[in-house]
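Minimal example, chain plus LXAUTJHC.
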Amino acid sequence: MTISPITRMGGSHVSLTLFSSREDWAEGAAREILSRIEAHLSTHRTVSIGLSGGTTPTPVLQNLAHEIMGWSDEKKRRILWFFVDERCVGPEDPQSNYRMVREALLTPGKIPGETVFRMRGEHPSAEEEALRYERLITELLGPSIPHPPTMDILLMGIGPDGHTASLFPGTSPEDDHHRLVISVPRQGDRVARISLTYRMLAWGGERLFLVAGADKKNILQKVLSGEGDLPSQWVLREAGSLGRPTRFLLDGASAPTS
Ligand SMILES: O=C1O[C@H](COP(=O)(O)O)[C@@H](O)[C@H](O)[C@H]1O
């Protein structure tokens, strides 16, 4: 599938893969993630993955759990699971990204707890927790100077307003300064959040956007049109300027028509 305006977003570094049904998408996306994990582990001791929340990734993570559950503990310990963002709620709250990931992937995949690095949404200070997570990332993945440490695979989503991770419309990479993780204040009904920054997302080895469902069709069309300053567009542009690839894994219902 080709969409010409996409070249304006991330140049040749952006590609789309379309799966016909939601079921094919969930299976195919899990296979894509798995093949990148295996490829990375064939040349590196460990692979780091950033997980997004919301509802879209659930069936993909369930399929991934099914593939990984039979692995030896030794091999499972070579995957380091991080979070792209979290809502400032407890780990049992229905809004918790960690809760969704635990139920879909960690528990069924029998993932060793010591390989999972969650953002503690229940911390009384989101800012302190963002700073702790930033330190954790640099300890585990490398220094933040001269550029952010690299998470090898970032699983990302797009919200109906074009947000990605917990970076919302009206923000831009200029707001990041030198941070890797930020706290995002509560706004209206939206609870406060903790999020990786644009820099951190752009420097990731590869971004896989998991997008499915008819309710994502319009926003995806807009994102890929190249016109605008939506957070997901900033990520594509910044990663593209670093020559880092981004791939969209779409189901038929979400795919743009032109
Ligand atoms: O708020 C969030 O939304 C986006 C998209 O979620 P979805 O439910 O529309 O798929 C998600 O990527 C992010 O992690 C989450 O916190």
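The CA atoms of residues 41 and 75 lie 9 Å apart. The mean pLDDT is 95.
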